[in-house]
Amino acid sequence: MSIIQEKGEQFCEFVNQLSICYKNKVHDGYTLRAKKYVRWSQNKKSPKQQWGHVHFHSNRLEIDLDYPVNSFTDIEISNRLGLPIKKVGQKISGIRTLTKSQLFHTVEIVIYEQDLDGFDIYNKEFTKFIREIALLSCV
Predict the structure, then answer these.
(1) Over the stretch 6-48, which tens digit does the pLDDT of each residue have?
(2) Taking a C-beta distance cutoff of 8 angstroms, is the pair 50, 32 a contact?
(3) Residue 119, by phi and psi: left (phi above 0), alpha (psi -120 to 50) or beta?
(4) CA distances from residue 10 to 15, 30, 61, 85, 130 in whole angstroms, order as listed
(5) CA 37 to CA 10: how far, in whole Å?
(6) Could you tell me the fold of the domain covering 3-137?
(7) Of 22, 39, 61, 71, which is most buried, counting CB atoms within 10 Å of its CB?
(8) What is the pTM of this model?
(9) From CA 76, how far away is CA 34, in angstroms rounded?
């Protein structure tokens, strides 16, 4: 198992321990799903459950997490995770936020293979942030 898969699996095991969400295996990693629905789901008959994705790329681990708008700033996320804000196309470990809808944003957390040895998935601040996003997003 590569370090990318190892760290990705550790992250997913942590998410699985949260009582409000679970992981679901897909071809390139895992989707992260709420047990019931995500807070911004507007279709009550068939509510949206997905709030994240973990990608195992050949040279990096990418964790994409959706969260309600106005919950965090780029600078806050960067400071809390100890990762720089990256620009489109930059091939560095870091975070980037995307506006996907008027109801939620997505943070891309990218950690390149050479940086994974020094990155602790169980770091207190990292796990606190992930738990906070899960609580904001999942029902």
Answers:
(1) 999 999 999 999 988 888 889 889 999 999 999 988 777 778 8
(2) yes
(3) beta
(4) 9, 12, 12, 24, 13
(5) 24
(6) Yope Regulator; Chain: A, (3.30.1460)
(7) 61
(8) 0.94
(9) 24
